Amino acid sequence: MLRVKDIHHVVYRHADLEALEAFLGDFGMVVASRDDDRVFFRGACSAPYIYIAERAETPSFGSIAFEVESRDDLLKAAALEGASEVQALDRPGGGERVILHDPAGRQVDIVHGISTVAPLPMRPALTYNTADSKQRFGDTQRPEPGPAQILRLGHIALGVQDLHANLQWYTTVLGMLPSDMVVEEQRDNPHAVFLRIDRGDDWTDHHTVALFGAPRDHVHHSSFEVQDVDSQYLGNQWLTQRAWTPFWGVGRHLLGSQVFDYWYDTSGNIVEHFTDGDLYNRESRTGYVEGGSNTLYQWGPDMAIEDFLGHE
After folding, report:
1. For the VOC domain, which residue ranges apply (predicted)?
2. Structural domain includes residue 184
């Protein structure tokens, strides 16, 4: 079993990198570097990139990358059936990878040794005065309008034909733990599973990979963290004013509690802003919930679960 540190980046292929760059700039990412056929986008945290856009005639999803704790984990990955050898990465920050494939055939890169960079300036999180807890005295807060600054890549949601095989792979190969399972009567027959990284006693996101049963294998969305709810609403307003195409939001999920909004990029992929998500550790118990639209969100614009999961 590999010791995964975090999700590191995603790779998507696009026919028009210039149009995508305009969208992702308004979505809240920053161009870190580029060459003739690739653009590397970063967030405000210390990863040199979190999203790689590759030029291709036909848009498609490329790969997910997970960072592991040590080079020994790379060697363990390279010893797995069907794995590549350890390869040097020709990208900002250097590092190495081993290429794996999950049961859906999706490329999963195991990476290590990618150098970090200095974080970008970030607006401090706002201090909220709730009804029974006042924290702000004599100060105002007036965040500037603009894109919702992306801090980091948080999770990816995958539609899979064989949920059980993929669940077994992500839990046994990558050592992930189930935070919540969406079931109907039988706990051993889930329709969707939210998986977190095992960081021992340290707290980590409620989910880094979400799996749900689907007629075909596909990536439903990639999700990126922003500072707070005000950043999310202002970013939503910014994208709306620029006439980009919304999918859903703003709302709050039930499983994971994240405040969300979803958008279509210029190739039709779904990307999400999120903030205020739950944190779990190794001792957190798995939840079992009955399926239905009430498990999808607590509040937000109307959305049927079949409409949400049916968009690819």
Report:
1. 6-113, 152-276
2. yes
Could you read off the pLDDT of 228-260 as tens digits, one per residue?
999 999 999 999 999 999 999 999 999 999 999
- Residue 250: is the preceding peptide bond cis (ω within 30°)? yes
185: burial class by Cβ within 10 Å (0-12, 13-18, 19+)? exposed
- Residue 282 CB coordination number (10 Å): 13
How many domains does the chain contain in total? 1
Q: In what order do the strands lie in the sheet with 107-112?
A: 30-34, 38-42, 51-55, 4-14, 60-68, 107-112, 96-101, 87-88
CA 274 → CA 45, 142, 265, distances in Å?
A: 15, 21, 16
- Alpha-carbon gap, residue 162 to 184, rounded angstroms: 17
Q: What is the CA radius of gyration of the chain?
A: 19
Take residue 119 and report the two structure tokens written for it. 């974080």
Q: Which two tokens stand for residue 269?
A: 């992929």
How many whole angstroms separate alpha carbon 260 and alpha carbon 299?
10
Residue 76 near residue 181 (C-beta atoms within 8 A) = no
265, part of any domain: yes
Residue 23 lies in a domain: yes
Residue 264 — φ and ψ, nearest 5°? -85, 135
pLDDT tens for 93-129 read 999 999 999 999 999 999 999 999 999 999 999 999 9
Is 129 inside a domain boundary?
A: no
Nearest Cα to Cα of residue 295 among 257, 246, 261, 247: 257
CATH number of the domain at 62, please: 3.10.180.10
Nearest residue to 214 (alpha-carbon basis) of 308, 282, 145:
308
Structural domain of 45: 4-115+150-310
